[in-house]
TrEMBL record:
It holds the Pfam family PapC_N. Belongs to the fimbrial export usher family. The lineage of its organism: Bacteria, Pseudomonadati, Pseudomonadota, Gammaproteobacteria, Enterobacterales. This is Outer membrane usher protein. Residues 840-885 are annotated as: Disordered. PROSITE patterns: FIMBRIAL_USHER. It is found in: Cell outer membrane. Its main location: membrane. InterPro entries: Fimb_usher, Fimbrial_membr_usher_CS, FimD_plug_dom, PapC-like_C, PapC-like_C_sf, PapC_N, PapC_N_sf. It is a multi-pass membrane protein. Residues 1-29 form the signal peptide.
Amino acid sequence: MDFNSRFRVTALAMLIGAITSGYWQVAYADDVVQFNTQFLDVKNGDRIDINRFSRKGYVLPGQYSLQVVVNKSPLADEQQITYLSDDDNPGDTYACLSPELVAKLGLKPEIVKTLQWVKEGACLKPGQLDAVEISADLTHSQLNIIIPQAYLEYTDQNWDPPARWDEGIPGLLFDYNLNGQWRHSEQSDGSDDHDISGNGTVGVNVGPWRLRADWQGNYQRDKGDDYKTSRHQWDWSRYYAFRALPQIHSQLTLGEDSLSSDIFDSFNFIGASLRSDDQMLPPNLRGYAPDVSGVAKTNAKVTISQQGRVLYEAQVPAGPFRIQDINESVSGDLHVRIEEQNGQVQEYNVSTASIPFLTRPGQVRYRMATGRPQNWDHHMRADAFASGEASWGISNGWSLYGGAIGENDYQALALGIGRDMAALGALALDVTHSSTHLPDNSAYGDGTIQGNSFRLSYAKDFDEMNSRLMFAGYRFSEENFMTMGEYLDSLEYENERTGHDKEMYTVSYNQSFQDIGVTVYLNYTRHTYWDRGTEDNYNLMISHYFDIGDFKNLSVTFTGYRNEYDDETDDGVYLSLSIPWGNDSTVSYNGAYGSSMHSNQVSYYSRLNDANNYQLSVGNNEHDASVSGYYSHKGTWADVDVSANYENNQYTSAGMTLRGGATLTAQGGALHRVVTPGGTRLLVDAEGVSDVPVSGYGAQVKTNAFGKAVISDVNSYYRSQARIDLNNMPENAEATQSVVQATLTEGAIGYRHFSVISGEKAMAVIRMRNGDFPPFGAEVKNARLQTVGLVDDDGNVYLAGVNPGERMQVSWDGAAQCEIAMPDPLPKDRFNGLFLPCQGAGQPERAPKPESLIQEQTHRQMPAPDLAANIATPTATTLAEQPRK
């Protein structure tokens, strides 16, 4: 392409930019804009396709595929928007907003009821809402709608009203979490222990319904000099289905479940439940999730379970850990098991009692359930039951809450009141009365017994002190008071008690001293029983951040703990010093001193990139030297954690965790990482282009061989984005749309596609059969209707993303006029200019061979024919009828 041609293409870009910015517009009384096309210095100036820019805000009648943007927030999918002539204002057009589109705008119900419709109810009547602005930005394929907040439901920066929630597409999913451990003893028996365990979820999505089945399994094999044992277990731990009910901000669940309650203890049942879902509220109004902390003496496997059902399982490196990603819907007591690679085991319980049950003024939060209680292996345990509870915001700061649960031989009634005392914190007090008819010879007594349980909860943020105190409750239960779970245990274990609660209180305190760089975290739980020993759990963590000379952001942490469980006590302290070493590395010292063992360890940690990190350690346990390593990889297909330990004269061990999943839909599928088994995910489509780097809020993934990838770090009911990393795109691939977003309901499989052009780049000249060429500004579009080039005044075009043998449309005057075909194979000198005949509709021709193109290129050195005499641009149907000049 010569200098003049390049200048004219640049001039076209300048013109379009000037027009869309308004800088070169000349407005008259009727808002008509006229342009002097001589400004472009192009041949045949009357043959320029810029009619769409000749009226301010004017859009030609027709149908457009546009991204709808409401108050600068784009809706999930592109919409087909039809522009119609305005009967009341001849010469003007307006966008036809369909009832389906208006329903997604998030208007208040009382506003929707007043709306008027035209075109037999197909279009919203324009101009009926004051201060609402609707404008098309065709250069960015957008329809911008500005709506005053007074017309809209509540919105948040990252939260959409229910009208914009997406239920996703139908599909299948299989999520897994596999753990493998091997340990070889150096002692006299020389035993080898193998342990493989796993859990996960299989699911089907159909419309708004999520069908799920949770599974868990374990295989153990022990081999010594004179023995060999093995055992295995497999269980479908839960079958259930759920769906969102956005109209009432609730979730309906059918099948096997655990009772979710802020008042009553949890137990397993099969039946149905309906509960208001805090996840459907804006993020700053959502509820509480439990926090589990502890200390691993070596690389270890942490398992958190409830009622025999595994909720969380993962490998953790040696040292203190704090798990904060337990699902916020979990309530009741959790059992924590820390299995060290040296064979030792720690166990204790953690209460997930929530902060005071307060509700906003005028609102009601509720939970209801009914069904049959069952144990962990799906056996029924009692007659049918029903339960219900609610919290009502009486006024500003006051909430009244209570509930009831009943079965033939068990009934309980609770009533409580909560108060937000502003500067003094939040306080809640409730009392529960139970009446239980026990079977004969029960370990809890005979006949009908009645008792009361009292609970006091308190929480307070001290903002001026950067601290938070949560006294999440003191609870005292009389000896004759029974929970539903204890009643069920009395039926299954008639002659023994499994733990009859007496007192329980938990204190959590977090304090930050920013001036001196010190943070203190304290957690204490005490649990007493009428029929067995007391359980205590202490955890104190003190961290100090400081600088020494050229070393910045050093930290030292002291952790003390004590666990008393099942008449056994395990206590100790943990000391760590961390020194940053470069940008992504750390050198640290860790010392553990406890009742069962002492150890010292020096470690080197390095973060290779966003997806990979590792840690190497050397030290001693008691009197024996040890070496260990830990590696973590967040991959496109799965997350992998690998660890290994060697202790001289003691043991050698290794462990691995593999977390991943597979999602399959009619739109395609992919293997992927998993954040929450069975949870929400987003399937993205790069239009068949592989190795496109895509990220959400976690590690980056790449599209598979079919151009698909699954983003699993998606929060339900939260506006989430996925974006292409434009700096690391594959060669010969370009993204014309690199960001998508979605607000998905819980468990949904969302689907979004990026506009990606893949292929070679080339320079070409386009000629029609009569020797003419398309008008200046005509668009070349591929089979996906993506614009891959703009024609200049000599028919020259720079094409991006073309492939051998591909056929593309050439469009002007708002429609496809003819078709070109790329040669197969593409010539190596394609940047010297390919000659591409443009065929009329219904007149296919074979793509020219590369040799003829080169020969044709030599003839193109002759002056182009002067077609200025043409009165009008010929259409595709008339091209063949015109004689070649």
